[in-house]
Amino acid sequence: MTLEPSPRSELLRVRMAELSEKAGVPVATIKYYLREGLLPPGERTSPNQAKYADGHVQRIKLIRALMDVGGLSLATVGEVLAAVDEGKASPHRILGIAQEGITSSRQVVDEESREWALATVRDLAERRDWPCKDPEDPIIQALIGVLCAIRDVGHGWYLDKLDAYAEIADRTADLDLEGIAGVESLERIIEIAVVETVLGDRLLSVLRRLAQQRASKAHFARLAVDDE
Amino acid sequence: MTLEPSPRSELLRVRMAELSEKAGVPVATIKYYLREGLLPPGERTSPNQAKYADGHVQRIKLIRALMDVGGLSLATVGEVLAAVDEGKASPHRILGIAQEGITSSRQVVDEESREWALATVRDLAERRDWPCKDPEDPIIQALIGVLCAIRDVGHGWYLDKLDAYAEIADRTADLDLEGIAGVESLERIIEIAVVETVLGDRLLSVLRRLAQQRASKAHFARLAVDDE
Questions:
Q1: Which of A55, A166, A197, B106 is most open to solvent, judged by the fewest CB atoms within 10 Å of its CB?
Q2: What is the DSSP letter of B65?
């Protein structure tokens, strides 16, 4: 595994216009990120000018990727980055913030469904040795929401495969952790975790789609349907 | 595997107010779905009244789940359902429409990055026997976008694990297909595929998060960080 130089390295020293060009983002957007505290201020060289470093380019690209590809809101990105910069919260906690931003759903779940889903989650967690102490944890809440939605649309049979999907999730998580094992800096570990989680979700979902095309080709070919 | 009764069954015959109650959606929303053609009209019993069936309840729940949990826009849900109802398009094509709605991204990719990513995708597809004929296919485009984003934020090393993730995707896809093998109705197959894809993405992402907590616990415990 080869890691690129840390985003905090200071090889580059450019003005705002060049920063905009290198990061591929308009000057007005960069100024907005600076005002909102998403981007640390540059090194002031005169009352009206500042110089920016490699870390700024990387940070802007990270903001854009989390928003454009990961689908996070600007507010969630801000919270995640603040927690990363503070360096006090654990990776778990920061991932929780990012995850809350992605998994928040407007879905309403009735009491009976919630109890059924929570029992299902608890049983699953016990079988797989997963943490499930706090039912108010946003990830547990998100899982409850998905299970209820699947049952609610009349596809409860899908959940017969829950354990098989959970096993795949365990394999995926072990693979996710491989990238982090050798890294020493906590800040870097957290950034890796956020990237792997947010962009990794998208990667896995798209790979699954291609694999489904492969897997379904044989099956659907039997049915006489027009493909255009 | 036990399948619930088909959403087209006509056991229930209720008026609008009851339909609203059973589906958990306001009357105004149901009227909007009817006007937009997302919901087929009820059976007219007088000039001002119509009765609705089980299929209407299920259809409304499906619309809500695709929007609230799956994150599809109303327009995308409309296109997906129109294709399902028409019954002419193949499951592939309909999944393509749903997927386009989820994977569309505002991301801009430069020419060099696009070529690198397309070559990476082509190599991967060849190794795994995945379809990759049309580079303009929305799924291929989405994969190109994710690969570029990961490299762009300086985490290109993550892609060393691409083949391992692709293998997991293949296992997932085989599992996905298991639910469809015994079903005969094309309309039902398509609905299953949409549910499995849109809600399944969410399910897998949340399961992965819990599995990550299990996997990372041991690793992060070594680092002295405050978890609150």
A1: B106
A2: I
Average pLDDT over residues A43-52: 88
> Using an 8 Å Cβ cutoff, are B19 and B11 in contact?
no
Of B4, B170, B215, the CB nearest to A211: B170
Reported residue count of chain A is: 228
DSSP string over A136-152:
TSHHHHHHHHHHHHHHH
B203 to A150: CB separation less than 8 angstroms, yes or no? yes
Complex confidence, ipTM:
0.73
Q: A-contacting residues of B 145-204, CB under 8 Å?
A: 145-147, 149-150, 152-158, 160-161, 164-166, 168-181, 186, 189, 192-193, 195-197, 199-204
Residue A38 CA to residue A85 CA, distance in Å, equals 10
Distance CA A98, CA A67 (A): 11
Nearest by CB to A130, which of B197, B213, B226?
B213
Tell me: the pLDDT tens digits for B139-177?
888 899 889 888 877 788 888 999 999 999 999 988 888
Two structure tokens written together for A213 = 């095309």
* Residues 6 or more apart in contact with residue A202 via CB below 8 angstroms: A69, A70, B103, B142, B146
Options 3.40.50.300, 3.30.420.40, 1.10.1660.10, 1.10.10.60; CATH for A16-98 is 1.10.1660.10
In this structure, are residues B57 and B23 in contact, taking their beta carbons and an 8 Å threshold?
A: yes
- Shortest CA gap A225–chain B (Å): 6
What are the DSSP E strand ranges found in chain B? 43-46, 49-51
pLDDT above 80 for A11: no
Domain boundaries, chain A: 16-98, 108-221
Q: Which fold would CATH assign to domain B16-69?
A: Multidrug-efflux Transporter Regulator; Chain: A; Domain 2 (1.10.1660)
> Residue B43 pairs with which residues in a beta bridge?
B51
